Every structure is written in C-alpha cells, then in structure tokens.
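ligand=manganese (II) ion
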Amino acid sequence: MTDIKSYISKNKDRFVDELLDLIRIPSVSADEAHKPDMLKMAEAVKDSLEKAGCDKVEICETPGNPIVYGEKTIDPKLPTVLVYGHYDVQPADPVDLWDSPAFDPIIKKTETHPEGAIFGRGSSDDKGQFYMHVKAMEFMTTQGELPCNVKFMIEGEEEVGSASLDWFVRRNQEKLSNDVILISDTGMISNTQPSITTGLRGLSYVEVEVTGPNRDLHSGLYGGAVANPINILTKMIASLHDEDNRITIDNFYDNVLEASAEERTEMAKAPFSLEAYKKSIDLGDIYGEKGFSTLERASIRPTLDVNGIWGGYIEEGAKTVIPSKAYAKISMRLVPNQSSDEITALFKKHFESIAPKSVKVKVTPHHGGEAYVTPIDNVGYRAANKAYTETFGVQAIPQRSGGSIPIVALFEQELKSKTILMGFGLDSDAIHSPNEHYGIFNYLKGIETIPLFFKYFAEMS
Ligand code: BES
Ligand code: MN
Ligand code: MN
C-alpha cells in the first residue's frame, strides 16, 4: 500500500500526459460542428472511469450530448459520494489572442505557477478539475483506500445551460441518490490559502433586438429625423443602472436575501488586495454598486451586464448608414432568493416599457438558473476543511463565488442533497478567455486532497 504523496510522485508525468490528451479533444458544446468531438470526449471519459476502477460505466444518451455515468459500490450501508463535472468546454474564440493553440496544450512556467501550468481550453474549466477526481479514484481503488461508495456523473452541456442534465436528473433520481455531491469546478483564494466555495450566483440571460426603420437608411438623408436603433439601444442600456450603479428595473431587488452584518464582517476578513486585483487585470480604478466592497459586488450582489452588442456597419472603412436593427446579449447574475424566471419577466416588462414608440423591441430569454448557498455546519464541509487543512497546512476559508453552476440548485431540489464545492482553480486561470491554464501544483494538490475528503466524509458520516 502506497500513500497518496508517493503515488502522485511516481505517477505525475502520466497524470499530466493523460490530461493533455483530454484537452486535445475540442469538446466545444456551443458549436454543432464539434458534435463528433463530444462523442469522442464522452468515450475518453468512459475509458478513464473504467481504468480508474469503476464497476459500472455507461454513456447515457440524452436529447443533447451524452452524460458519462460510472459507479463503484463497495457496501450499500456505507455513504455514497456523487462526483459531478463537465467534459464540455467554452469556444476558443478569439483564437488570435492565444499564445499557443487552444487545443494543442503546452506546459509553461508563470509568476503564479513557478512549477508550470498547462495552457489549453478546458485545462481548468473543467477537464483538469474533474480529472483530478478520476485520478484520486484510481489511487483509492488500486491502493485499497476507497472508504465509501462513489458515483460519477460527467456531463457535456454545462457551458450551454445543462438542459439535458436537468432532464436526466429528473428521470434518474434513484440511480443518482447520494449522501453528498462533490464538485471541483470553482476556484480558491490562492495556492497558499485554500477556500471552499459556499455560494454560487444564479443567472438570467436574455437577448434583445431593437428595430427602427424597416431597412437600413442613408444617414445623411434620414439622419436626425428617425430613431437610430443603436443610439436608442445604448440609451436604454445606460438607463438600466442609476448613479449608484444600482439596477433600475422595478422590483429587481425585492427578493434579494441581504447578507447579514455578521456574514459581511466574516467576508471582509478573507485575504484580498485591491491593488493586486487592479493590477492583475490592468484597471485604473474599481467600479460597482455603492455601499459594497469589491468582493461583495462579485459574490453577494446581483448584477446586470451586457455581454455583447452589435448592429450596423463594422467592416473596414466607413459606411454612412442608419441600421434597421441593433442587438445585445445581457446577463443578470442573481443571488438568493431571486428567481431566474421572475427576473427574466421583470427585465422583459421593464425593457419594453422604456422603449420609445420610434422603435420596436423584442426580448428573447436564453438559459437561466438559481443561486445556491451551502451551510458550513455539515459533515461534507467539515470533511472538506479537514482534507484541505492536512494538505495545505492551513484551514480553508468559506467564500461565496460570483460564478454560476445552475445544476447545483437543481441537485438540491431533486436529489435533496448538499453540494460541496472543492475547487482548485485560481481567478488568474483565465477560464473562458484566451490562454486558459491550470497549475500543475493545483492539479496534483487536488488529487492529493480528494482522497482525504472521502476518508473524512466516511469517518464522520
Ligand atoms: N465552472 C464555471 C463556473 C464557476 C467558475 C463558478 C469559477 C465559480 C468559480 C462554469 O463552467 C461556468 O462557466 N458557468 C457559467 C454558467 C453557465 C450556465 C453557462 C457561468 O458562470 O457563466
Ligand atoms: Mn465549469
Ligand atoms: Mn465554464
């Protein structure tokens, strides 16, 4: 029997090579052209789970991309941990801004990662992170260290709203039954200060279309006399925040569960440097809702952001035109107890009400999801904290994140189980951006910490 540290040092090159192979499969869920890669990726995940010692592994068909399911039951009387992750990734765009090809991963040293980081799409979100669980499983099964039952559910549509997972969970409650859900798809404070994510924001995502004249017009002949949909759209968007940067949609904040003074005081204790924050993304100054700190703005407060805006002439040179249409994609990050459907409806009503008669507007909802907060007084949290404390030498700090994993709220609703978010990424990993990377330190530390979670969870349950 080998301990986890020596198992990792013996196998680390293979662990890294296997992850590089997974990153080479461009499993971009947003793009239909990558459908064959999704299937190839699902096969690769299935293989890896079989090799890691799962007894029953299957590729479950869904209306969309398949879900890879695997399990190993050692004793029905023991607790069961359900590991969730996603094998799909974001598109590589804008491709030109990558220093090396997104799907041809390389290892490079950086300031934050002196021992090297893997650069490639999905390295951190979420291939590198879910694969830590596969390698931890391999260690536990081959070394006789598996202390409880395990189920794996690795899906292929997280980055596009998890529509099929939703469908799958509702139909497979028995199969997915568990005592705790374990996910590595978030981040931590730093490589010397681990944290456990205790909250995720919800999401309401809409697309708007503003139509002015029925055709593009000469901007000299008509300019000044008709509503330009781009001018109108930008005015409408600007009016969605007031001078305190609060959202102006009627009733938007009605159901917001305000964080208690105690919780805010706790949050303020987390290590955070505003100077380092500004420097890391090259900002002259910070920005946001009056009355809240940067950490609060990015976690416990709801937001509204334009994700994209287009219309009119954007090719080379100049064209004097008043476009017929203008568009924007807008996302709202939500907090407990806002409802994604309600907020979408409020947005639609408000946006239609502020449109001048000179234009027509159309609001189309995209995907949404609910926020999630997890208590820290449960076995899962304590087991995770004990595991981190052992591998990092310091206690983990509970921290609410601003990102969204909508399926987590649905897990709680349908499976009645709590989720523990043991993420090993860093904010500097550039997930969804060019040059996404994942530290080799983080990858191996995750593989080292996960078996300890299993051990303590089984002991404490
Ligand atoms: N893994 C991320 C979410 C995340 C990252 C949460 C870091 C906390 C810290 C996930 O893959 C993601 O990108 N989610 C989307 C939502 C989805 C519905 C497209 C998001 O947050 O934009
Ligand atoms: Mn993710
Ligand atoms: Mn993502």
